[in-house]
Design a protein that fits this description.
It contains 33 helices and 8 strands. It is mostly helical and 972 residues long. The strands form 3 sheets. Strands 3-4-5 form a 3-stranded antiparallel sheet. It has a 3-stranded antiparallel sheet with strand order 6-7-8. A hairpin with a 3-residue loop joins strand 6 and strand 7.
């Protein structure tokens, strides 16, 4: 019997069932690798583009240090008070009437169409008289512009464009003067013609060196209008006076580097525009004047640094071209590389193709130079009753030299005809597409487009042409356009299901990438943090907050030497109504320091009143001078940034109390007591000691500065004889105190503890969100912070690295600290970089505190050196010839300037001396200007003090007061 056939068993499917899953996992891992590679490539590409821009900036800094908008506007020339033509033009505009709306357009066209030697129809003249009469006050004021050759306006920068509405004011004044000049020529009023020509020229010069390319473009137009008016005036009235003055003024104006002003401004404005595009403050549609889709903006943003560097370099080449003589510029412009393609660099392409400003400047220069020669020819005719045979006879009696033609570098041409003479250039006016037939001034020879025409006496002042109409027909340019045609609406592509499918796939990939990226970011950040902390532990043991506090507790002064508790007790005893002593007398004597004049009587009454209220507590406070050190008890919380420091305000109040006591001692002719009060103020600063907080060291510096300034004010009113040597030694000791080093070490330790609390949870999310100034957080804020937790280790490492760089700079000699601090680069914030948000929020302005510490050191060293000079004078009856004469009897060594490492400055005057530290190339607003502390020919500011001869001390009060240095009402 045959064996029954067995049923075949199915093959096991375990391996086959895993294959799709393995394929999916492999695909996801491949996507992650690709995403990481793309991210790495984009990061490297962005770093290279940023480096390219920084390299371009370094190149510009070498050739033009003041190239940025802020430096450009700060370095502008400003006319003296009361001599600003721009301010006068604003007054003229305020007095305007509506005549300009109906008169300055239609009738003015006849001035361009009518030859200069032909008079206007009587109807036009009569209408001009009527309309100008309605604005007689404004016209009278406009004529005074002849005495205002300089102008200045503050130009605000509102990207993507500069605010340029003020040019309408200048147009108004120019139109007034041109029509007033027509009437003056009709009346043959020669003096008024001469004055109005100068006033017209000053209308253009009122724009000055404004950093605005459009303003310089308009200035050339105003200058051209003045030249045409001069040509017409000479063609109407002979023997006009003051031509020599007009020629000199126009010659100076012709050589003004208007193109350089315009191009430097254009470069600075577009660099600001790129900065706004990069940080997101300027939308792309505003810069490119058309809407762009989001995907295009994302791709284009990555190219912005490269385009910014390219634009900066190309604009710098044009700026350097503008520095050349004008006749060399056209040829050099043709040698520049062509502008980039619109698709690659759309903004740069638009900027670099803008050549109209070059041509306009060359045209304006050519016309101005022709006019200068033409006026010289008219002066020659007035003197010799004939025209010159050639231009060489004008040199040097009437003309210093024959100006060159900007278009070929040859002397400008001169030709005679039966009607008169003409001075002309070989240049041609531009022919843009919108105006292929530019207006050529009538009267020029055939083929000449730029020149200045002069007529013989018998050809001047011709009667008006009866065929000339009295009004032109205005045609609106908008009539030729019809934009009513409807635009096609965009069409939608794809179906709803396809959209959902694609959205689901994209969302899934994004979620997966987010989880993988979050894990990778946290791992890399922790690795950076471990490396940073290990390096700090090896190079600087005891850098954490607990170690710093333990070291302070170990070095705490003995209770009998600790001035902290005494300062707190004195602060509590100050009457409540007198706890604002650092503002005492401000309302009647603002800025009380560094003057040898007594305060006004009202200020004295305020001081005496406050003195009576605080008599008892001041006597106790002055004993603080005997305390050499101090230390306050600070209780740091788990969230160290919320630690309260009430003792700082109390110390500040006690220092102000001693400041008041020093002033009262000076007023009461008790200078020795004033010196004791100054020493006590220094002791208040020493009570803060090495407190490891920047804000604490700022108050420490403020108290030290109060002590120095109080002592110098006492000496300015009297002649103390006791305590000077002790005060000098304490000032030198305080000047050597490392304020910034102690503060930055504590700041680093506190921020480290804060990050540690955020990481281990001792600082709650609610406390963390307070750092971001979120008062009432919502679910989205909690979710965002939990997402950001992955960045905290890297953020922590970055903050430690930056603060360590600041701490290392604080260890350098004083004059080397600022250059080192400027090399510390803070990370960019959103939207460019989201990794270091807390670092940017928490790290204070360390460079500003470092500058304050150097200013305090300069202040204390200057005061100590002044006291050494005073001790020398008390012994020898004269001031020292130099500071070397003070060593070693009165000064261990000549102090070094903390800003440049050179000896401190010393100057002698007839009635005083000045000791100061000079800070070159600074624009620090915390340092008042004083001519006694300046350096000839060097920009900067000085920090120091003056001492007066004994007969010049305690002089009566000035009215109004002229202080040199404000009273410090806060940290320096």
């Amino acid at each position: 019997m045959p064996e029954p056939e067995r049923a075949s068993k199915p093959e096991p499917t375990k391996g086959k069932s895993l294959r799709p899953w393995l394929t999916l996992v492999g695909f996801v891992l491949l996507l992650c690798v690709l995403a990481a590679g793309v991210q790495w490539y984009l990061k490297r590409d962005r770093a290279a583009r940023d480096a390219e821009y920084l390299e371009a900036v370094a190149e510009v800094e070498k050739s033009d240090p003041d190239w940025t908008w802020e430096r450009l506007t700060a370095a502008r020339n400003r006319p003296p008070a009361g001599q600003n033509a721009a301010k006068l033009i604003e007054k003229i505009h305020a007095l305007r009437r509506d005549w300009s709306k109906r008169f300055n357009s239609d009738e003015w066209r006849h001035m361009e169409e009518t030859p200069p030697n032909v008079r206007f129809p009587p109807a036009v003249i009569a209408k001009a008289r009527r309309d100008l009469t309605t604005s007689a006050e404004a016209v009278k004021l406009a004529r005074t512009l002849k005495d205002f050759p300089h102008g200045h306006r503050e130009i605000p920068l509102h990207l993507p464009l500069i605010s340029r509405g003020y040019t309408a004011h200048t147009y108004l004044a120019t139109d007034m003067l041109r029509w007033d000049l027509v009437i003056a020529a009709e009346d043959v009023d020669k003096e008024r013609i001469a004055d109005n020509l100068l006033a017209l020229l000053n209308c253009s010069r009122s724009i000055g060196d404004e950093p605005d390319s459009l303003a310089q473009f308009v200035r050339v137009n105003f200058q051209t209008d003045m030249i045409r008016s001069t040509e017409r005036a000479l063609a109407q009235v002979p023997d006009i006076p003051k031509l020599d003055e007009l020629q000199a003024a126009l010659a100076d104006t012709a050589e003004e580097p208007l193109l350089l002003h315009a191009l430097r401004a254009e470069r600075a404005v577009y660099d600001h525009l790129f900065e706004g595009l990069l940080n997101g403050s300027i939308p792309f549609k505003h810069a490119l004047m058309k809407p762009m889709d989001t995907e295009w903006e994302k791709r284009y943003r990555a190219r912005l640094p490269t385009e910014r560097a390219h634009t900066l370099r190309m604009m710098t080449r044009r700026v350097e071209l503008a520095r050349l003589p004008v006749h060399e510029q056209p040829a050099r412009l043709a040698e520049l590389p062509p502008p980039p393609d619109d698709g690659e660099f759309p903004i740069a392409a638009g900027v670099l193709r803008f050549t109209t400003i070059f041509t306009q400047h060359w045209l304006g220069t050519a016309e101005a130079r022709c006019a200068v020669i033409g006026i010289a020819c008219e002066r020659f005719r007035q003197k010799h009753d004939r025209w010159p045979n050639d231009l060489t006879v004008l040199v040097p009696a009437i003309l210093p030299a024959i100006p060159l033609d900007p278009f070929d570098g040859q002397p400008l041409r001169f030709a005679k005809s039966k009607e008169g003479v003409v001075v002309y250039s070989v240049g041609k006016r531009p022919r843009p597409e919108y105006d292929p037939n530019p207006t050529i001034p009538p009267g020029l020879p055939e083929g000449v487009e730029l020149g200045f025409q002069l007529w013989n006496l018998d050809q001047r002042r011709q009667p008006p042409d009866p065929r000339t109409p009295t009004r032109a027909t205005a045609v609106s340019d908008q009539d030729d356009f019809d934009d009513t045609e409807p635009k096609p609406e965009p069409t939608r592509r794809g179906g709803f299901r396809r959209f959902l499918l694609r959205a689901g796939i994209v969302l899934g990939v994004i979620v997966l990438l987010l989880f993988v990226s979050r894990w990778q970011i946290g791992r890399l950040g922790q690795r950076k943090l471990d490396v940073t902390t290990q390096r700090l532990d090896a190079t600087e043991p005891g850098w954490r907050l607990d170690a710093i506090l333990a070291e302070r507790a170990k070095n705490a002064p003995r209770p009998e030497q600790n001035s902290a508790q005494a300062v707190l007790d004195i602060a509590e005893r100050i009457p409540k109504e007198s706890r604002d002593l650092h503002h005492a007398g401000d309302e009647v004597w603002p800025g009380k320091y560094s003057t040898n004049h007594l305060p006004p009587q009202k200020a004295v009454e305020v001081f005496l009143k406050r003195g009576r209220e605080t008599a008892g507590v001041r006597a106790e406070a002055i004993r603080l001078r005997e305390k050499r050190s101090g230390q306050y008890q600070i209780h740091f919380k788990d969230d160290p940034l919320s630690t309260l420091l009430p003792h700082l305000e109390k110390a500040r109040n006690v220092a102000a109390l001693l400041e008041l006591d020093a002033c009262l001692a000076g007023l009461e002719k008790k200078p020795n007591r004033g010196i004791l009060a100054a020493r006590a103020a220094l002791a208040v600063g020493r009570s803060i000691g090495d407190e490891p907080l920047l804000i604490s060291q700022l108050v420490h510096m403020a108290c030290a500065k109060i002590g120095a300034q109080s002592a110098m004010q006492v000496i300015a009113w009297g002649e103390p004889t006791e305590g000077l040597a002790e005060l000098q030694a304490e000032l030198l000791e305080e000047a050597d105190f490392p304020f910034f080093r102690h503060g930055i070490r504590g700041e680093r330790a506190m921020i480290d503890k804060m990050f540690t609390g955020l990481d281990n949870g001792t600082i709650t999310i609610d406390q963390a969100l307070m750092y971001f100034q979120i008062g009432k957080p919502g679910p989205q804020h909690y979710a965002a912070f939990r997402t950001y937790r992955a960045f905290i280790p890297g953020d922590h490492a970055k903050s430690l690295d930056l603060l360590t760089q600041y701490a290392e700079a604080a260890k350098l000699p004083p004059h080397e600290q600022l250059p080192a601090l400027r090399k510390v680069v803070m990370p960019k914030g959103p939207p460019d970089d989201f990794r270091y948000i807390i670092t940017r929020l928490m790290i204070p302005a360390c460079d500003k505190v470092a500058e304050a510490s150097l200013r305090t050191r300069a202040d204390l060293l200057s005061a100590a050196t002044c006291i050494a000079c005073e001790r020398f004078r008390l012994k020898h009856g004269r001031w020292p010839n130099d500071l070397a004469e003070l060593t070693p009897a009165f000064l261990p060594a000549v102090p070094m300037n903390p800003f440049d490492g050179k000896p401190i400055r010393y100057r002698k005057f007839e009635d005083r001396i000045a000791v100061y530290c000079f800070w070159a190339n600074t624009r620090n607003r915390n340092i008042p200007d004083s001519p006694d502390f300046s350096e000839p020919g060097v920009k900067g500011a000085g920090i120091g003090y003056r001492l007066w001869n004994t007969d010049q001390r305690g002089l009566p009060a000035k009215d109004p007061p002229q202080p040199d240095m404000p009273l410090p009402d806060g940290p320096p």
